[in-house]
Amino acid sequence: MSHPAQQTPDSASFDEKKVDGLDGGAPVTTTLTAGVDEPEHSEHDVAETNRIMSKIDWRVLPVCAVLYLFSFLDRSAIGNAKTAGMNKSLKLTDSEYAGALSAFFALYCLLEVPSNILLKKYGAKIYLPCIVVLWGIIMMCTAFVKNFEGLLAMRILLGGFEAGLFPGVTWYISTLYPRRAIQLRIGMFFSAATIAGAFGGLLAYGLVHIRNTSMEPWSYIFLVEGILTIVAGVVSYWVLFDGHKDAKFLTEAEKEHMQYTLAHDATATPFNTSFQWKFVRAGLTDWKVYWSLLTYISCITPLYSIALTLPSILRISLGYDPIKSQLLTVPVYIVAALLVVVFAWGADRFENRSAGMIAGTSLSLVGWAILLTSHTPNVRYGATFLAAAGSYAAFPSIVALVSQNVASTTKRGVAIAIQVGVGGLAGTISSNIFPARTAPRYELACKINVAMNAVAILTSALNVLFLYIANKKKQRMLDSGEAQRIPREVLADMGDASPYFKYRY
């Protein structure tokens, strides 16, 4: 059956054009003759797309979630190790521990963009498992460090190898699903980060009970998590695929259907998705990327404050013993994981990312405000639920917003990498706002996180306004006939700047 007729520009009458598949694979040949409908393909409707997406879900989401679980588990294991006695064993000062936390983000921030370029070149099946295995080895080596210098080196290398996973998986998902379905998938794999917090607490609780060995209990946290990470990386090689064209579980008709759906996701004009340096430059100079970066940093600072210090907050600020502190992190993360999925489902269902972003950061703001003002342990413990759940639930929205509003896959990969890479510097903020002298209430950190959430709310609201203005400008180009005079091949290179591409909020 044929795809529904779609309105196309009148100009640029030419016969055929190769349009690269969005998965970076074989080109899809479409007849781009002016003034006629698109070519014949398999049936193009929402029900068929949803059916195929369900098949992809079962293959992609579990493995991506597991990989990100270990990514977040491994970077935040240092918080559990501290509670288990690492600082005392390594004779770390307060500033040295903060330095070790911050060191993770040195290479992590620098390598995001190069990593996504390499991912597009070599494919997810090879690239993602390789970096997972490499950082698993680094985790194992961390178990044997004897001083601050060794810990610092391992944290720098860990950040370098982990740099490619989150932006890589986000880009990978954006090449497999249409815009309307992206956030739920990002939310489902990102929920693994919150589950990692719960799993990490339970794992640390069990491992710190190991006694009568030549290794310290905290060392087992790094060793065991490193081994599990390596296993996950090896298994992922046999599960991942490089795009629709390599998905052996899809029929040829299903592959063609999904490639057509994504090529015409935002406009009847297929985009040029080949790798070209001009698309890299476009990603580096897009205002949407840098405005969203403000929201990203403002949202992730409170999130990292929870991820890196929750065990210490519960132990020092609320007065619980080290073992109980590990266990009490579990329900906090479980609630946060559930809210991530609920918010992500709502964002896709109502096709509105910004509302969830504002709601989540508002919830987090309330949580940190209670931590700042209350002196009652049980009330403060309840506030950690709000602070964690709000930040974690809001986070996928800002990532999905960039993914759905950048068209070219090369430009999108760069945009996501800039956001995650530069935005990851917020981790250095979170790492340094909990000095021991501010314990037990950590008023400085609470004030900063309240302010960050307020900035996130403001920038999210303004982003909606800016996108609305941009869409109105595009509509004027359509109404005046200016858009119809743009040659078809030029439109293919314009990507999201095309007047036929409408931004979503």
From TrEMBL:
Membrane topology: Multi-pass membrane protein
Compositionally skewed regions (Polar residues) per UniProt: 1-11
Domain Major facilitator superfamily (MFS) profile: 60-472
Keyword Transport belongs to the record: yes
GO molecular function terms listed in the Swiss-Prot or TrEMBL record: transmembrane transporter activity
Location(s), subcellular: Membrane
Alphabetical keyword list: Membrane, Transmembrane, Transmembrane helix, Transport
Bilayer-spanning residue ranges: 60-78, 98-119, 126-145, 151-174, 186-208, 220-240, 289-310, 330-347, 354-375, 381-402, 414-436, 448-470
Pfam families for the chain: MFS_1
First-listed, main subcellular location of the protein, grouped into a coarse class: membrane
Disordered: region residues: 1-23
Positions in coiled-coil regions: none
Protein name: MFS general substrate transporter
Source species of the chain: Tilletiopsis washingtonensis
